[in-house]
Design goal:
This protein has four helices and twelve strands; from the N terminus they run ββαβββαβαβββαβββ. By secondary structure, the chain is mainly beta. β4 and β5 form a beta hairpin. The protein is elongated and about 55 Å long. The model has no long low-confidence stretch (mean pLDDT about 90). Binds ribosomal protein uS19.
């Protein structure tokens, strides 16, 4: 399932006293944000639609002013919230690029190794978890993964915390650990089980 709205940026603090704020682009691209006329701010389990008064470029960033946000205090309410728009207004994707919103809720699957220690692609993929979020880490992006409670490949102490709750782990989103991202099928292949320990 492809979502109709995607995150194009993040509110990153007030700029001046009029309610203008700095925008961090989710893709590193800015052109598509400069022409927006309406955005949804999403965060803290809420979302709110705003008319865009203006967007202006600055040194490697953008400044945005939305209707009804008229002071630094009002900007603080939305600091770190996502800027969400219909997919048609998002930056176009290149090969091996995905919208973060499309990666969320993908199943993380693993192909068991055959007797020679090689991946057995003829076997069925085993779901080991679900991507619940994508976060920026120091060296790149990380998948936050909720471990599957009924995965027979993982021991109970890996699937659950000491208190018996389902575990979540962070998996680096790089070629060493992740392959074959298929957002249409909502599946991402995990290369090594040990990263879940």
């Amino acid at each position: 399932m492809v979502l109709e709205q995607v995150t194009v940026g993040f509110v990153r603090g007030a700029h001046g006293v009029t309610g203008e704020f700095r925008v961090e682009s989710a893709s590193g691209e800015f052109e598509h944000i400069l022409v927006l006329r309406e955005v949804t701010l999403r965060g803290s389990g809420e979302q709110k639609i705003f008319k865009v008064e203006y967007v202006k470029p600055a040194d490697s960033t953008l400044y945005m002013k939305l209707a009804d946000i008229d002071s630094p205090d009002e900007v603080r309410k939305y600091n770190r919230w996502e800027i969400v728009v219909p997919r048609k207004y998002a930056a176009p994707l290149n090969k091996n690029e995905w919208y973060i919103d499309d990666l969320k809720q993908c199943s993380l699957v693993y192909f068991d190794e055959d007797k020679d220690g090689l991946k057995d692609k003829s076997a069925s993929a085993v779901k080991v978890g679900t991507v619940t979020d994508v976060l920026e880490g120091g060296g790149g992006y990380l998948f936050e993964v909720s471990i599957s409670e009924n995965c027979s490949l993982l021991s109970k102490d890996i699937r659950y915390t000491a208190s018996g709750k389902s575990r979540s782990v962070f998996v680096p989103f790089n070629y060493e650990h992740i392959r074959n991202v298929d957002v249409k099928r909502k599946e991402i292949e995990l290369m090594h089980l040990w990263i879940l320990e």
